[in-house]
Design brief:
It contains 13 helices and twelve strands. It is of the alpha+beta class and about 350 residues long. A seven-stranded antiparallel beta sheet has the order 1-3-4-11-6-9-12, sandwiched between helices.
Length: about 350
């Protein structure tokens, strides 16, 4: 998880600084306005507080540090849960009497029912995702929204993610969210990408805690992936790869996550990685990226007047610099020089 933590490109979050202060009272006030109101006890070390905030749609991302060692007692928060990743240092929290330690690189859900207290060691820096209960409620099975519990969200439970594989999948979802932040907001597909990935994150959080949320609730792309994977219970590895590639070709211009690809092949994410390495020599998301690069290459080769930027965005590349680098690595030229291959 240390390697994955280091691979997260947080530049889009760090560009959105809410405040930076060495004053204790000023720091407390700014953090309380962005996150729950709280009591804050400063302990060892000098304050060096910084808060960075980026809103996706319903989800919000924060990077927060206090500099000094602190003890935080938040007021109850009933309409959202938090997911913490320790970027630097270690944090601990006591949630309804359960004590959980979050070492550097680890991920924990913080969803108190009554009481919460947190301790951050000196120099700790946390990546925090704020997940509204309304998003989780939207993903609940229809039957769960009726009867005595009508209107209640499917509550999350506090604790560390259950396995290294879960942490790896969480990191991939976070990478997708960070890439969305870099995408121009006026793209026609932008809202669809955001809704898809936000719902996937809600589904992941529910699923990793063993709660029911049907795959079809994730929207049209996850629904198509689920349908693609149906009937593969006794399929061979080759048949699963054929189903995966058919799904990828159908979704070259649509938002797709690693979980979608696993559903399309009818296997777990771990098994999907193994099969893709065995049959193609690359991870599944790299295979999808190569297929999208091939599609973009075909467009630029057939239409010399096509816009490189629009073509990149059309096939899901929201970072033009990375698109150009991947393209050059695969075809030996930059996208704008594709026409030179014809001469």
């Amino acid at each position: 998880m240390q390697m994955l933590k280091g691979s997260l490109d947080l530049a889009q979050v760090y560009q959105r600084c809410v405040f930076h202060s060495n004053e204790r009272v000023d720091s407390h006030g700014h953090v309380a306005r962005a996150l729950p109101d709280h009591d804050l006890r400063w302990q060892r070390g000098a304050p060096d507080t910084a808060l960075f905030q980026a809103r996706i749609s319903r989800l919000q991302l924060f990077v927060l540090r206090y500099g000094a060692q602190v003890e935080v007692t938040p007021s109850p928060f009933d309409d959202f849960a938090l997911v913490h990743m320790s970027l630097k240092g270690c944090a601990e929290f006591d949630c309804d009497g359960r004590r959980v330690r979050v070492p550097e690189g680890k991920v924990a859900v913080v969803a108190p029912k009554k009481n919460l207290r947190l301790w951050w060691e000196e120099g700790s820096e946390q990546l925090i995702l704020k997940v509204p209960h309304a998003l989780l409620h939207d993903l609940a099975p229809a039957g769960a929204q009726r009867g005595a519990n009508a209107g209640l969200h499917p509550g999350l439970h506090s604790g560390l993610l259950q396995s290294n594989m879960m942490e790896m999948q969480w990191g991939l979802l976070m990478q997708s969210l960070l890439q969305i932040l870099a995408q121009p907001a006026d793209l026609p597909t932008h809202a669809a990408w955001i809704d898809h990935f936000e719902r996937n994150i809600g589904l992941f959080l529910l699923a990793q805690q063993g709660q029911s949320a049907p795959p079809l609730a994730a929207g049209p792309h996850a629904s198509a992936a689920f349908e693609s994977g149906q009937g593969l219970a006794t399929a061979s590895a080759g048949q699963r790869m054929d189903a995966l590639e058919r799904y990828m070709r159908a979704k070259l211009c649509a938002p797709v996550s690693l979980l979608d690809l696993a559903m399309a092949a009818g296997v777990s994410v771990r098994t999907l990685n193994m099969l893709c390495h065995r049959h193609h020599g690359v991870p599944p998301m790299d295979l999808l990226r190569n297929m999208r690069l091939d599609a973009a290459h075909a467009v630029l080769k057939e239409r010399p007047d096509a816009s490189v930027t629009e073509t990149a965005f059309e096939f899901g590349f929201c970072h033009l610099g990375r698109f150009s680098a991947y393209y050059r690595q695969r075809f030996g030229v930059l996208p704008k020089h594709t026409g030179e291959l014809m001469h």
